[in-house]
Each structure stands twice: as C-alpha cells, then as structure tokens.
Amino acid sequence: MNTPTIAKPSPLNNPARTPITLTIAGSDSGGGAGIQADIKAISATGGYACSVITALTAQNTLGVSGIFPVSPAFVEQQLDAVFSDLEIRAVKIGMLSDAGIIQVVAKKLRQYQPEFIVLDPVMVATSGDLLLEEDAISTLKNELIPLANLITPNLPEAVTLTGSAGRHIDPSVLKCLDQEMLIEQLRAISNNAVLLKGGHWEHDAFSTDYLITESDTVTISAERVVTRNTHGTGCTLSAAIASYLAQGFSLADAVNQGKTYLTEALCHADLLSIGQGHGPVHHFYALHSLRDQG
Q1: pTM recorded for the entire structure
Q2: 3-state SS class at 148
Q3: From the centroid of its chain, how far is CA 201?
Q4: Among 215, 218, 238, 275, which is 20 to 30 Å from 100 by CA?
Q5: 189-208 burial string, b = 16+ CB within 10 Å, else e?
Q6: Using an 8 Å Cβ cutoff, are 114 and 150 in contact?
Q7: 176 labelled catalytic
Q8: pLDDT digits (tens, 9 = 90+) for 119-135
Q9: What positions does the domain Pyridoxamine kinase/Phosphomethylpyrimidine kinase occupy (predicted)?
Q10: How confident is the model at residue 287 (pLDDT cuts 50, 70, 90)?
Q11: 50 an active-site residue?
Q12: Is 234 annotated as catalytic?
C-alpha cells in the first residue's frame, strides 16, 4: 500500500508556517485513543499538535473504568490559551461529555474562526449505549455540526444523528440499514461534508467509507485489515484528516491521505504488543520502518 504524503517541515526561522492542528477531546490514560491518539496521528502526518482536554478517562486496552469531566469554564480557559497564542489552522473535535462543554466549544470556534473544523461525533459506546444525553445530542446538532467542514460518524453515530435509534443501538439494526437513505439523511443534517465510516459493515471484505457532499458521494475503499489492535481508529482518522487540511490539502485529498495513513497504521498494528485487550494502531509505523532499514 502507498505511504501517505508527509509535508516537508517548515524552516526553523519561520514558525508561522508550521501547520498547527488543535485537538479538542478526552484523555485516554491507556494512550491508544482520544487526545493521545490525536497527538500521535497529527505528529506522524507532518503537523504540530496542541490540545484542549474535555474529560479525563481511566481506561486501558480492556475498557473504560471511569470518566471525570472537565468543567466548561476550564475548557474555555484552555481554548483561550491556545487560540490567543498559536496560529491554529485546523481543529479536530472528539469526545465532548455534555451540553455545557459543547456550547463553550461552539462559542469559542465562532469567536476564533479556524479555517478547518473536523468533528468526530463520539456518541455511542462499543456496547451500543449512547454516551451523550438527549440535550447534548441536540446541542451538538444545533451548535457544532453547522460549524464543521467535515463530520466523521461511524454507523452507530450516523444512526443516532439522523434520529433512527433510541438509547441503545442493536448491532442487528446496522446490518439491515438502507445505505442510500442513510446517506441522504446525513446530507440533510450537514451544511458541509460528511465522511460516513463503514467499519461496522464487518461482513464486507473491504472497509468502505463514503465522502458525502452537497452534490456527490465518493466511495473510499481499502482492504479490511484483520487485527485485534483497532483501539482509537476513529480518533486517528479524523485527526489525520485535520492535520492534512492544516497542511494545505484539499478536503478530498485530506480524506484520502487520512484513510491511507490509518490503513497503514492498522497493517502495522500487530508489530506492537500493548496490553491484554484491543491494542492501538501503530501511529509511527513509518519511523519503525526507517529504523529497520537503518
């Protein structure tokens, strides 16, 4: 498979040209998802990462044992700190734990107006249970989705955003979805673009995502990688896309490059031996390959 293009670093005497991407998300103490995965993906794809933490989690490769939300006031303080000093071109948004935090993030994005916003709507647990209350989902749809250049829902999240499910999403429902209808429903809720991730169509030999714009739907496929190390795939993809947007790639190219990067990170994931459960993808596979060549 092709290695994604990585932008050349900016000259040291011109730091304003450094492609900076902000990740707004929760912290994963196990290091495989959330803020930690975002920072790794942004760094590995040639960007500089800064962060605003919305929640602390106690988790590892076996699961999440606790969540400690950060107050909306301190989220706001973090946002002011990074935006007032750093030239942030792209923002990736992940886990937002409640309506108050969503409102603060939306308010600050309207104030500072970064060029690109990629929203990964972390809304559904692996069990199928919703992670956000109804008021938070409504706030997300009304306040943040209109600001995003791209939203990147997986199938359960897409079903939730379009109002096709209740508090629990049965995996059997996902297998019989009307794909075309879902795409049209997603097109109707977003002013800009949607990347519908097809990873939950596990019976397919290929992992196919759908880039949905106002006038077109483009399929982006890669051969499905069989590995247990899939923790943080959604975070990694959306962060990589935001990183490529910050570097000047078009939306379509950024999505393609992000998909290629994630696929390679999955292909190399079994080179890592992390934890007893679902380990992370290999964010720095390119450095690993260079080390082996040396």
Answers
A1: 0.90
A2: coil
A3: 18
A4: 238
A5: ebebbbbbbbbbbeeeeebb
A6: no
A7: no
A8: 999 887 665 566 677 88
A9: 28-282
A10: confident
A11: no
A12: yes
